[in-house]
Design brief:
The complex is a heterodimer of chains A (566) and B (349).
Chain A lengths: L2 H6 L22 H4 L4 E2 L5 E5 L9 E2 L6 E2 L4 E4 L8 E2 L4 E10 L7 E9 L20 H10 L12 H4 L10 E6 L8 H8 L1 H15 L3 E7 L3 H14 L4 E6 L8 H9 L14 E5 H12 L6 E7 L7 E6 L4 H7 L11 E2 L6 E2 L13 E3 L20 H5 L6 H9 L3 H6 L10 H5 L6 H55 L10 H23 L11 H26 L1
Helix pairs in contact in A: 3-6, 5-7, 6-7, 6-9, 12-15
Chain B lengths: L16 H23 L1 H24 L4 H6 L2 H12 L6 H16 L12 H12 L1 H4 L15 H9 L9 H4 L4 H10 L4 H4 L13 H17 L6 H20 L7 H5 L4 H8 L10 H21 L6 H18 L16
The chains are: A alpha/beta (566), B mainly alpha (349).
Chain lengths: 566, 349
């Protein structure tokens, strides 16, 4: 932006910003990757689309192997409420639906749709653009966002449409757009705000309409002056007084959702709560741009900006990347690895996870591929015992006592870790970064959380089993009681003296009655000429058969008797 | 291409345990130099002897425990214990007492509890107290500051006194030792002397004992360095010294003839050394901010109480150990409010 334009941008009144305790001032390493403008990455020959790129249920494929798909065509639909659909990032053929390496800390594979691009990049038929979104029902817009498969692009990848459905009892007054980008090295949001501030502002207006917020606050750290100027210019151009660009001090992790809301509004999202409880919805600036694309232009989410940086890549840069592009191809387009590359990290150096190899596709949440050198990300020294110096507690942005949680996590006392609010930990890594003993604290907390979840699940299972057992016991008892009462009833019936047997033993009377019934039946049968089959009136042939059988029986018995006598 | 996968964060800060301990050692240097200036070569000999014994003992126990010796020694924590111990004992303490004290501190109080980070008590103070209660005569036989001494001990004198137990030719041991100002103050007060009378003696400087007050100043300088380097925070020193001064001030205002001026407390005995170097030992102190304020304040009050009415002239070591026991409990009840939690509610359950 030239000087003349900058001068026309009205300087907004200074809005108060709040502070959060803890946090770190880290060397930001942003300049490496902001020197070149964002350029589109080359069209890959193969793309792998993981069915799970978001929090929630994996998407369900709606294409089969061999299908031809067009760019923007839905290839997997959301399954259930918490899920997001996936669209073909380019036109081509579905060549496989099966396991492929995905970017996940576990390094495991998961089901991906493999797409061989045909190079035509031909668009499918798209839904109508809605430049008139302000006149439309929020529910309709929400459905469009869901259709577009938009998830939080800041890294959390939570399906956005869900965040946009405020409850009637939780009215939203403020929409916060997160342009803080507090992690070192990452610059994709910075570059988006510099290059396409109008899309972000457009997205802000759409989102504000959808959630019914009064005001939009766009928080940007003060180490991004170009982005701030561009965004202010775009807001001024839009002439929207209910959107404010707020410059916040650079401090990691001010881009954490709860931290940013605190900085911009002074309010704290309750522990284990969501921002809507205090009338706030927070979205990343890139998510806002994607929402604008979906609503105003009818485009699904099929690409994103990815930062490639670190001393391990030759030409650090930002690329506009189709979802599903293998990381390896992107590194090649950033000049390839330098000999100094030591690691490959997806995300930033504080919260990103190390990839075992680069044969993984870019997902919707992948904001940065960081290839640091050994100097940038040295192997951690061997951990020493904790000396309880408390630097971690000073650095913790949540106000936890990491040294105490570490102590209990190490002792595997999970209840105690939760007494110290383990589950409030956001795993930002500040504590581990300042630890003089170089203890991998975050790893201990992840371990404790996982163990606690497993234990909770086990507890729930045991609870279910106990419930099932109790139900079964109750059922058996009920059946037994029913059987007994039936028997008792029958007995009582039998014991009740009847009019036919006025005197004597009721048992005898019953026997007498049975004998009489038998005699009567016999007489009736005899009257019909049916004689019972018995040993009287045998023919000679029958008699012989009977005698032979008796003889065999005796012969068979004899040796047994002899043996038994010995 | 394959890469190593390690857990985040992937950036390691520049801080290290070795740096922390080295800063503490560095901060102790001005105080040690001042102590040596006023009390002679014995101080230097004690520091050297304690250091050698501490490092050797630490290495020996680590080897017995089958732990790597190198990293544990390179954290310098044994040296910190040795130096703190050495500046607490009289400058001419017989060598074998120093050895006993250090062995107790390093072997029993530190290593048998699991080594650095696991000891509930401050090793240097535990070692010091073992000697104080077991060998009270030797442990209270201080030298007068050199500017008051009739006979200034040379290096050879100090060496002979420490290792051979032989005082300089023609002098009895009693002739060269002297009680500490705190001890003198206490004895004279017990004899119902007024502060104004007591202070007639040439023993006194502007605040505390002559010489002694300057040692206190140099330790204070080191303490401020630790604060500036953020090795310690202000909470424990401020609350400890603050509580002691307030308590001393209240009694001094009530009766200045039987209670010394508050600054006397500050610049006598182990108050400043204790506030900045001993009570702040992170391993044994409280770790919550609020807890540290309570911890420091209780130490300060107890120091004043024992100095005024207890059986010992100084009490920093006792009070620190006493509050070491209380630290986990104080920590438990002073957890900070966590982000997003209601006030006064420390946890969910």
């Amino acid at each position: 932006m030239d000087q003349a334009v900058r001068q026309t941008v009205p300087q907004p009144t200074r809005r108060r910003v709040w502070a959060f305790d803890g946090g770190l001032h880290l060397p930001d390493h942003k300049l490496e990757s902001t020197g070149r403008p964002v350029r589109p990455a080359a069209l890959p020959a193969r793309l792998w689309l993981p069915l799970q790129q978001h929090i929630g249920e994996p998407a369900q494929p709606v294409v089969s192997v061999g299908d031809l798909v067009l760019k923007g065509q839905l290839v997997a639909r959301p399954k259930g409420a918490v899920s997001a659909g996936i669209h073909a990032p380019t036109s081509g053929t579905i060549v496989a639906i099966g396991p492929h390496a995905i970017p996940h800390p576990s390094g495991l594979s998961a089901t991906c749709i493999e797409l061989a691009s045909d190079g035509r990049d031909a668009w499918a038929e798209l839904p109508a653009p809605w430049p008139d979104f302000a006149a439309r029902d929020p529910a309709e817009l929400r459905e469009r966002v869901r259709w577009a498969g938009i998830v939080g692009l800041g890294g959390a990848a939570f399906p956005s449409s869900l965040k946009l459905s405020p409850r009637a009892d939780q009215p939203i007054h403020t929409l916060v757009l997160n342009g803080a980008e507090c992690e070192p090295y990452i610059t994709c949001d910075d570059m988006l705000m510099r290059g396409h501030p109008d899309r972000v502002v457009e997205g802000a207006r759409v989102l504000r309409h959808v959630v019914g917020a009064g005001i939009v606050l766009i928080g940007i750290e003060d180490n991004k002056p170009e982005a701030i100027a561009a965004m202010r210019h775009a807001v001024a151009t839009a002439g929207d007084a209910r959107i404010e660009v707020v410059v916040i001090p650079t401090k990691y992790p001010s881009g954490g959702e709860k931290q940013l809301i605190r900085v911009l509004t002074g309010a704290e999202v309750p522990s284990h709560g969501i921002p809507a409880q205090i009338g706030v919805v927070c979205q990343n600036v890139a998510t806002a741009a994607a929402v604008a694309d979906a609503v105003v232009r009818g485009l699904p989410l099929i690409s994103r900006i990815v930062t490639l940086t670190g001393e391990g890549v030759a030409e650090p840069c930002n690329l506009e990347v189709l979802i599903g592009t293998p990381a390896r191809e992107l590194v090649a387009q950033a000049g390839g690895y330098t000999p100094r590359v030591a690691k490959l990290i997806l995300g930033g150096p504080m919260m990103g996870f190390a990839l075992p190899h680069d044969d993984v596709p870019i997902t919707k949440a992948a904001n940065c591929l960081l290839a640091p050198s050994r100097a940038e990300s040295p192997p951690p020294p061997a951990p020493l015992p904790c000396i309880r110096c408390g630097r971690c507690a000073e650095a913790c942005p949540v106000g936890l006592l990491p040294q105490q949680m570490y102590w209990w996590a190490r002792a595997k006392d999970l209840d105690k870790t939760q007494d110290y609010n383990l589950f409030d930990c956001i795993e930002c890594g500040c504590c581990a970064h300042v630890c003089p003993s170089h203890i991998p604290l975050v790893q201990y907390y992840r371990y404790a959380k996982t163990e606690a979840w497993a234990k909770e699940q086990e507890r729930r299972k045991a609870e279910q089993a106990r419930h099932r057992h109790e139900t079964r016991v109750a059922r058996l008892e009920r059946l037994e009681a029913e059987r007994k009462s039936k028997l008792r009833k029958k007995k009582e019936e039998l014991e009740t003296p009847t009019a036919d047997a006025p005197a004597g033993d009721p048992k005898k009377a019953a026997i007498q009655a049975a004998l009489e019934r038998a005699a009567a039946k016999k007489a009736a049968l005899a009257a019909q000429g049916v004689a019972p089959k018995n040993t009287e009136e045998l023919t000679p042939a029958q008699q012989r058969q009977v005698d032979a059988a008796d003889a065999r029986r005796q012969a068979a018995d004899a040796p047994v008797d002899a043996e038994s006598r010995d | 291409m394959r890469f190593p996968t390690l857990s985040s964060p992937h950036l390691t800060g520049p801080n290290s345990t070795t740096r922390v301990m080295a800063e503490v050692l560095l901060a102790l240097v001005p105080g040690i130099v001042a102590l040596a200036w006023y009390f002679g070569w014995g101080v230097v000999i004690n520091v050297a002897l304690a250091s050698v014994v501490a490092v050797a003992a630490e290495a020996a126990v680590l080897r017995l425990r089958g732990r790597p010796v190198g990293p544990a020694l390179s954290d310098l924590s044994a040296l910190v214990t040795a130096w703190l111990f050495a500046v607490s004992i009289p400058p001419t303490l017989p060598w074998w007492l120093t050895v006993v004290g250090i062995l107790f501190a390093i072997v029993l109080v530190k290593q048998l509890y699991g080594g650095i980070g696991h000891n509930p008590f401050n090793p240097a103070m535990a070692g010091y107290l073992l000697l104080l209660v077991s060998y009270p005569v030797q442990m209270t036989a201080w030298l007068p500051p050199t500017l008051l001494a009739d006979h200034v001990l040379s290096f050879q004198d100090a060496f002979a006194l420490i290792f051979l137990g032989t005082p300089p030719a023609g002098l009895a041991l009693d002739a060269i030792t002297q009680a500490t100002p705190l001890d003198v103050m206490r004895q004279k007060l017990d004899l119902n002397q007024m502060i104004s009378e007591i202070r007639q003696s040439p023993l006194w400087g502007d605040f505390g004992g002559r010489g002694w007050e300057w040692v206190g100043n140099w330790f204070l300088l080191g303490g401020l360095y630790l604060l500036a380097r953020r090795v310690i925070t202000w909470h424990i020193p401020a609350s400890m010294l603050g509580a002691m001064l307030v308590a001393a001030g209240v009694f001094w205002l009530a009766d200045p003839e039987t209670h010394p001026f508050p600054a006397f407390h500050l610049f006598s005995g182990g108050a400043i050394l204790g506030a900045f170097f001993i009570a702040t030992d992170p391993v044994t102190a409280c770790t919550t901010r609020k807890g540290q304020l309570i911890y420091g304040a209780l130490i300060g009050l107890l120091v004043f109480a024992i100095r005024s009415w207890g059986g010992y002239p100084d009490a920093v070591a006792f009070c620190v150990l006493l509050l070491n026991i209380a630290a986990p409990t104080i920590d438990h009840y002073t957890q900070p409010r966590v982000f997003g939690h209601a006030k006064g509610k420390t946890h969910d359950r």
